Amino acid sequence: MSKTVLIVGGGLAGTIIANGLCRQLGDEMRRGEVGITMLGTSETHMYQPGLLYVPFGRIREAELFRDQRKVLDRRVNFFVDPAKHIDVEHNQVTTEQGRTVKYDYLVLATGARPMPQNIPGMREAGHWFYELDAARKLRDALNGFTGGKIVVNVNAPHKCPVAPLEVVFMLYEHFKAKGILDKTEITYTYPIGRLHALEPVAHWAKPEFDRIGIKYETFFNTETVDPEKKTISSMEGVSLPFDLLITIPPHAGAQVIEDSGLGKGGWVPTNTKTLSREGSTNVFVCGDTTNIPISKAGSTAHFEADVLIDNLVSLLQEGRMARDYDGKVFCFVETGMNSGTYVWFNYTTPPNPGPPSQMIHWFKLAYNRLYWLSARGLL
Ligand SMILES: Cc1cc2nc3c(=O)[nH]c(=O)nc-3n(C[C@H](O)[C@H](O)[C@H](O)COP(=O)(O)OP(=O)(O)OC[C@H]3O[C@@H](n4cnc5c(N)ncnc54)[C@H](O)[C@@H]3O)c2cc1C
I need a labelling partner for 53 at 20 to 30 A (CA). Which of 163, 232, 274, 334 fits? Predict the structure, then answer.
């Protein structure tokens, strides 16, 4: 009897897995023994890391999008029909349009989304670049900015661990090029007692911030934003005035995860090595939606997806798992408009950012294009 692998979520993780399974299970699919189904929310696939460049006018919006059906192997049964209820007891998912999809193996890859509405006043007074509309508004705000106080406010949890640092370095160079650096003060806030969750990255960033005069306020857990007074206040009792607020809002996982009772906040309890949902043997979790305490990043999703492809193929062909995920993450870090560095780490090796160079920045720009090969599972 044919086995169905159902993937919920057509972002980076879901797409890499679907394409990888098709490539490795071609014979089984041809014989009708395996089928791959995906439920997604949109006909288009967005390259999210490209949003970082939108506020600075450094990317054309067309570069951010591809038709999801063209990114996916044509053997994937893809439905733009979001999952409404995931029933792991009965191995089935019901959808917004009333489908019931039964599965043998389920992959949850529903990602993470910014929730500015969770902090009073943030949506009204803040700008962010984690969604396209918001990134466009920030571009307009930066175009009209002639100097004053900017607060770059970071909240947890959030995806892309390094984007908040990147935007600070890019803002600095943007204002320098505009000739308004002397009229501009940038203050960065972070919820714990250093500049970044990853300690070596925090140690690296501090002297860089000091060198270019970025102020910072650590132990800043945002409580409220006052759109009238233009102040942002922390639970620790600190209030900062701003002319422009750029926030990395706190994130949540997908609503369907929470509604289906699969994880508080939309984060699914996940085995750090096998990536199986805690308590399930046929449900796997990939990318931002896991509760694994590592960076929510595209590279994390990619490395996890590679493991899951091997394990699902082995399960289907030989009834066993193939290998464990070792916590590997790799991130390029823009340190300005023309320089960059990178970090890589795993569960046992901490990150160690190297000296920035123009060449690494070029690699990051090249990756912005190569992403589409990555999503197809060719890189
Ligand atoms: C500004 C920005 C910069 C970034 N920069 C980097 C970077 O430089 N390097 C890096 O590695 N990462 C970066 N990232 C992070 C990276 O984009 C994400 O970590 C990555 O996309 C995670 O993949 P995912 O598949 O888990 O989630 P996503 O790619 O977000 O995909 C989840 C998918 O699930 C869908 N979904 C949700 N609910 C349902 C439902 N009910 N039914 C069906 N589908 C559903 C969503 O619509 C979405 O398409 C950046 C992100 C942002 C926003």
Answer: 232
Q: pTM here?
A: 0.97
d(CA 351, ligand 1 centre) in Å: 22
Buried b (16+ CB within 10 A) or exposed e, 81-117: bbbbebebeebbbebeeeeebebbbbbbbbbbbbbbe
| Contacts for 165 with CB less than 8 Å, ≥ 6 apart | 195, 196, 201, 205, 333
Candidate of 81, 159, 333 to mutate for ligand 1, largest count of ligand atoms within 8 Å of Cβ: 159
Contact 282, 91 (CB under 8 A): yes
Residue nearest to atom 31 of ligand 1 (CA): 11
Q: Name the residue with the closest Cα to ligand 1, atom 53.
A: 130
CATH topology of domain 3-111+254-327: FAD/NAD(P)-binding domain (3.50.50)
Ligand 1 mutation pick, 41, 106, 330, 331, max ligand atoms within 8 A of CB = 41
Angstrom distance (rounded) from CA 166 to CA 188: 12
Q: Point out which residues pair with 152 in neighbouring strands.
A: 188, 246
> Band of the pLDDT at 264, cuts 50, 70, 90?
very high
**Looking at residues 353-366, what average pLDDT do you find?**
91
Q: Ligand 1 centre from 17 Cα, in Å?
A: 14
Q: Whose CA is nearest to atom 30 of ligand 1?
A: 111
Q: What is the pLDDT of residue 378?
A: 82
Which CATH number fits the domain 115-250, given the four candidates 3.30.420.280, 3.50.50.60, 3.90.76.10, 2.40.170.20?
3.50.50.60
Question: What is the tens place of the pLDDT at every residue in 76-134?
Answer: 999 999 999 999 999 999 999 999 999 999 999 999 999 999 999 999 999 999 999 99
Tell me which residues have their CB closer than 6 angstroms to ligand 1. 8-14, 39-41, 48-49, 51-52, 82-83, 109-111, 129-130, 159-160, 163, 254, 256, 287-289, 296-299, 301, 331-332
Give the start-to-end residue ranges of the domains of the chain: 3-111+254-327, 115-250
